[in-house]
Design a protein that fits this description.
The chain is α+β, with helices and mostly antiparallel strands. The chain has 7 helices and 5 strands.
């Protein structure tokens, strides 16, 4: 079986869409795309907002692999968090209608009771809140961490 995988990022020589066999290792994808222009600072499987950083290219393409980003140092740079300016952008862009900054506050205060009361488990981890935040708050990352801990508690 084959699937189309998007290979992108400033570190890859020939970014594009490639039809590859399921099971192809990421090492081989790099060769298919002409190799590296520079060594990547970060490799992300999935999209820029919901993807997962990986540390080993000896990973196969699976049926859910849609893209691989090979990011340069400049592309992978994560700016420092600043204080929330209460602009409401995270609330406006949340597809479920949550208040991400409130959930983030609950996380920072280690108040899982309020996190649950503010519907933190309903988050779909899309990353929109972090992406749109002018203060570069890591909202989705903090919410994701506590959400997964709370879901694990519920399974027990």
């Amino acid at each position: 079986m084959r699937k189309v995988v998007t290979i992108s990022g400033g570190a890859i020589a020939n970014p594009g869409n490639y039809k590859v066999r399921i099971g192809t290792k990421l090492n081989d994808l790099v060769q298919i795309a002409g190799g590296f222009k520079t060594n990547p600072a970060k490799v992300v499987v999935g999209g820029p907002m919901m993807g997962t950083a990986i540390f080993d290219l000896d990973v196969p393409v699976v049926k859910t692999t849609g893209g691989v980003l090979f990011l340069t140092e400049a592309e992978a740079h994560i700016p420092a968090e600043e204080n929330c300016i209460r602009c409401g952008q995270c609330v406006e862009h949340c597809p479920i209608g949550l208040i991400p900054i409130e959930l983030n506050t609950d996380v920072l205060r280690e108040n899982s009771e309020n996190f649950l009361k503010h519907n933190g488990l309903e988050c779909i981890e899309c990353g929109s809140c972090s992406y749109i935040c002018p203060a570069k708050r890591r909202l989705s990352q903090s919410i994701r961490t506590v959400r997964r801990v709370e879901l694990a508690k519920k399974k027990k």
